[in-house]
Amino acid sequence: MDIPISKVAERLNLEEDVLKNAIERRVITLCKYRDKRYLVFKKKVRHVERGTVLFLNERMDVVMGYPKIRRALVLDPTVKKYFIDQVVVEEKLNGYNVRVVNIDNEILGITRGGRICPFTTKKVLKLLNTDILKDHPKITLCGEMIGLNNPYVPHYYPEVDREIYRDESTVIRENLGLYIFDIREGDRSLPVEERNKLLEEYNVPYVKPLGVFNKEEIEEIKSTVVKLDRENREGIVMKDPSMLVDPIKYTTHYTHCQDLAVAFRYTFDLGIHFMFSRLIREGFQSYEFNEGEKEMERRALSIGKSIIYPMVESIKEVARGELITEDFELYFDSEEDVEEFLRYLKEVHISYVVKEREVLKNRIFRVIIGKVYPSTRDKIKSYLGGSLW
Amino acid sequence: MDIPISKVAERLNLEEDVLKNAIERRVITLCKYRDKRYLVFKKKVRHVERGTVLFLNERMDVVMGYPKIRRALVLDPTVKKYFIDQVVVEEKLNGYNVRVVNIDNEILGITRGGRICPFTTKKVLKLLNTDILKDHPKITLCGEMIGLNNPYVPHYYPEVDREIYRDESTVIRENLGLYIFDIREGDRSLPVEERNKLLEEYNVPYVKPLGVFNKEEIEEIKSTVVKLDRENREGIVMKDPSMLVDPIKYTTHYTHCQDLAVAFRYTFDLGIHFMFSRLIREGFQSYEFNEGEKEMERRALSIGKSIIYPMVESIKEVARGELITEDFELYFDSEEDVEEFLRYLKEVHISYVVKEREVLKNRIFRVIIGKVYPSTRDKIKSYLGGSLW
């Protein structure tokens, strides 16, 4: 169906000129997923968040972009100042943000950037009881897709290890899970308890609540962070129980170092702002945790290792003539699903190589995709070849 | 005297429009030092380097900007590829770049940025035999001003410790020296031996030559770097003996870590590109020096410490309500000299506080100036106060 631009402008409460201009600058792009055509906001346009999707269907369904969660660099006094009274502390999972919606009776998985990802969409159907979206078609389930076997943020979580096939001789496991952390309707979030009640009703997995604290109980919140750090987990998101203020986040030393390691493995591809911000977080954390000489030295060593080891590893790989790739091991149900996903990667301009591809028993397709980081390889190669800085 | 813009354009071989435009954009500014008026190029304009100075005197004397020295990230194969045959290795000193010139029979010290610095100018007269510039008024002596007691890059060098006053009860030492590393005439450098001969004739101190190598002798060059690193020194500059190709530089682990420490002490003032580049250098150096587990771990620890210790120190200082300053202890010969220099700092938009000021015996004026880093303090203060990132 063809929808005039004036209708779209009206639906989003944007002026037609602003909309047209954004389309011309390719800030808004037209995408397609099977028979669905939709507009994606690649950047914020006026009040419309980055990642917002508008479906070109009869109702012109809009899925709002998921708002950025801001960060406390120190828990004290930030938490005391920011919250009203109580603070719900939930675990922040290290995966990728997914919005699950029901559009014209079809369940779709939308990435942070606003694309309907075929991999995600298919996995959602297996990981969630989607009846919740049939009964409540207007809500958006916002969650984190985690585990080793996803194509964006591969990070092992023991709790999402699932057997997807077994016979006498083989067990195939997929490490993948989806935990809902927010239910939104328009730009409003359900209060935490209401959210939990609804999700429990449908037996939908949601993020681990770590406790509800009075906003003055900073030491208790700090303890949960220390515990998560020891367990190699990412951090916390703190919420007002009624969701009257936006959530804020705080992350662990472990995750800062993990991020640094990724940043320095792909030295010239990941932005330097990415690494700078992690180092700043470490500085404030070391200060707030009131570290002595020994603890600081331990922190310094792990920061230094996270920087130098992966960088030297990448230089060595390039010196050996290898590609610099980040590898993702993925499981698909059919050859067509594999192909559809590879087409999708091209569409979103991710360069990749297929490193392994095999059909397992029970017609499960196992693929290892290597995401290529071209600048890192080219620059390292050039410097190793004698180029001057 | 008033010089028409067309004359200036002609003198520099620039089109009048280009010159006018650069003046309007304040890329070229008019400055004054006592009775001398001069134009400074704050950025490169066409072929005219940043830091170039044009005096508005009769001859319209031009002092070309000192060109950026490019860097090898690995010595092998860069040195082999870059040089013609022989390589003169000189020590790279960690101070600030000074061009010393004779303009209308006055000796002036010009900074990298192209300003006549009153502190530098006066010290030059004490540290150099300026007869060389009287006999050869067209040359530019390019050197590094080093030592603890300078207002830009305070770094202790034992060899420039000088007694500037002594009586029965007191010894006052100034740690300051100037080493010439290049003699230029227009945009041409004297060949290394000619340079040394001329400087020796006038007994002018010049940078330590560390050896002359065949360009294939990379291991020997590496050894000099290792030795300098152990002595906590900055690095090397490699030159073609005839100066037919531009010099290139290579620096030590020690200096990378020192730089990181400075960058993270003034976290939000020094650019993130500054720190990123130091980390990259460390990666390539660790790779080229073929480090084993132990050496890499040692490197990692010192990198981590250089990042986290000074950052936490700054956070603590801000938490205590202190200013974040970099302190310079300077010696002057008169009250007027102090005042002139403080006026100069204001002119070049350096914010500072005078922390100590005393008249020593023999009318030597000792001043401690604290250069203020405003963003670091403001941002840290704001985050400590609960602002979100």
UniProtKB/TrEMBL annotation, chains A, B:
Residues 262-387 form the RNA ligase Pab1020 C-terminal domain. Pfam families: Lig_C (PF18330), RNA_ligase (PF09414). Residues 86-251 form the RNA ligase domain. Keywords: Ligase. One of its GO terms (molecular function) is ligase activity. This is RNA ligase.
